Amino acid sequence: MRTLLLAETIVLGALVAASSGAGPQNAKTEMADEPTSGHLSEEQTPEFREYIDKLKQETPSLLTCNQKWALETEAMGELRVKGRQLRKEKRPGEAIEVFNQILAAYPDAMSTPLVYHYLAGCYRDLQDPSKADEVLRQGIAATKTVAEKAKDAAWVGGLYFSIVTLYTGMERLDEKNIQDMRACAIASLANVTTNPDLLNVRLVCAKKLQQLGRDAEAEAEYRSVLTPGNVHTAPTSQYTTMALRSVVEILQAQGRIADVDRLCLQLMEDYPQTRLADEARRLRDQMKKRCDISPNPAR
Prior knowledge:
Elements: H1 2-15, H2 46-55, H3 65-88, H4 92-105, H5 112-125, H6 129-149, H7 153-168, H8 175-191, H9 195-211, H10 215-223, H11 228-231, H12 234-253, H13 257-270, H14 275-290
Helix pairs in contact: 1-9, 3-4, 3-5, 4-5, 5-6, 5-7, 6-7, 7-8, 7-9, 8-9, 9-10, 9-12, 10-12, 12-14, 13-14
């Protein structure tokens, strides 16, 4: 399970990819081709095939959530691959039929968010964002139902995380949706409380708030990631640099150049010889090339 959760944090980079690496500032507002939940990977290695063969011999009632997910992946795999291939061939109408077939056959599957994600992507291909948002809302409701039935805490957390990422694919969110997205983020963190997972959810929520023009809330969310424990821990340090790049983007867009300078200098002073300090130095040097900033301004 831990491997799956780590995969989830790694794939976040696709959602918030930046020109300099993995920061969120250049993330696309449309849905990425791949979702952000590592729980739903479709890769089938020989080892996975052997694992599936063994599971098929077990008593269904004794299977864990992870094992049930593996069997669902196997059962749904051929159809899902067919749907994705049709979409790649620019045949979204046929792909929609396949994905709807999957949802009809496996309404309570742990992989529900993945299928809704692909289905919404098909409607975006058809230039129908309203229908895509409708599909995502259906996916959110369906995923909540699956989460309520799940017993494994890590799976519940992962499913609520999937709900958050389904929300990020929507073009429009009203206040009620935003509050629900945050509630699902809290539910996710209540079940999966490791630091990487926590930062992952915060960055996803912050990015969506930023896309919605709620920069003050997004900035506060990004800044909450910049703490000593996150800076000095290898699995989470990458998220601090992503958060910093996003804060700098917001500040620069608002013309708050002096605030960018102060923030970078403060981080360089507080966290010397860290990944975050190196990124702060790089961002400040980059800004100095565009703006007239003295090497050591008064603080």
